[in-house]
Amino acid sequence: MALLTADCPRCGAHHVTFDVKGQKSQGVIAHGWVERFEIFSVCRHCHRSTVFIADNNNYDSRGIWRDESSGVVTYKGYLNDYFELSGYVSLKDEGVEDPPEYIPLDIAAVYTEAVTCVSVKCWNAAASMFRLAIDLATKSLLPPADQDPPAKVRRSLGLRLEWMFKSGVLPSELEPLADCIKEDGNDGAHAGSLTENEALDLKDFTHSLLERLYTVPKRLELAALRRRERRGEI
């Protein structure tokens, strides 16, 4: 029987054993092999169930977990040796969408926190987290510090985006959506005055930007790899 050791969200018992009863893969989330699972488990202390979120952290075992009839559930032993628990499903997850595919784990975590804030109607908190996700993503695109843009532009998210659009670093079709960063984002950060519509505008831009920077290139890379495999080139 597959087992997990974790703190129980239902009864508060610490470091208790859970019996694993079911699994559902959410797909690969990073590095082409880190796969996320929802794992349905029952606490041996209170006998109530919890759905844990767990990421495979062992490259060598990446291919054995996905089969729902012979994967996680049928493993003999503790899954903690192969998985890192990142949380559990609760009311805060109601209606929360997944981040775009293939984005870095740190940005995915920030994006998930942002959409969680949206789900509970915390518009200003959501705006701050969306801006942070964009800030992390765009900083990685900047050239070395001894090149343009100047330090003032590098520090300011709004000025940085403006420079990136003018320089062709970011696709011009996203530029109309970026107005929410220069206006609504600053309003939310400094005055706590964002509305639902403004937060959703930030969400739309963040999602579109992350897809263009990470999801689309990775999908093209994988498609090219499959093509080479079909032709026997690798």
Write the layout of secondary structure elements.
Layout: E1 2-6, E2 16-30, E3 34-43, E4 49-56, E5 77-78, E6 83-88, H1 105-119, H2 123-139, H3 151-155, H4 157-167, H5 179-191, H6 196-230
Helix pairs in contact: 1-2, 1-6, 2-5, 2-6, 5-6
Structural class: alpha+beta
Principal-axes shape call: globular
- The beta-strand count equals 6
Strand-residue fraction?
A: 15-25%
Mean pLDDT: 89
Radius of gyration: 21 Å
Helix share bin: 40-55%
Number of helices: 6
What oligomeric state is this? single chain
The H-and-E topology, N to C, reads as: EEEEEEHHHHHH
* Poorly predicted segments: none
Biggest β-sheet strands, sense, barrel: 6 strands, mixed
Distance between the termini: 39 Å
Going across the major beta sheet, what is the strand order?
Answer: 5-1-2-3-4-6
What does this structure look like?
This protein has helices at residues 105-119, 123-139, 151-155, 157-167, 179-191, 196-230; strands at residues 2-6, 16-30, 34-43, 49-56, 77-78, 83-88. It has 234 residues and is an alpha+beta fold. It has a 6-stranded mixed β-sheet with strand order 5-1-2-3-4-6, with no helix packed on it. Strand 3 (34-43) and strand 4 (49-56) form a beta hairpin. The longest helix has 35 residues, at 196-230. The chain is globular, with a radius of gyration of 21 Å. The relative contact order is 0.10. The mean pLDDT is 89.
Question: Tags for this entry?
Answer:
234 residues; alpha+beta; 6 helices; 41% helix; 20% strand
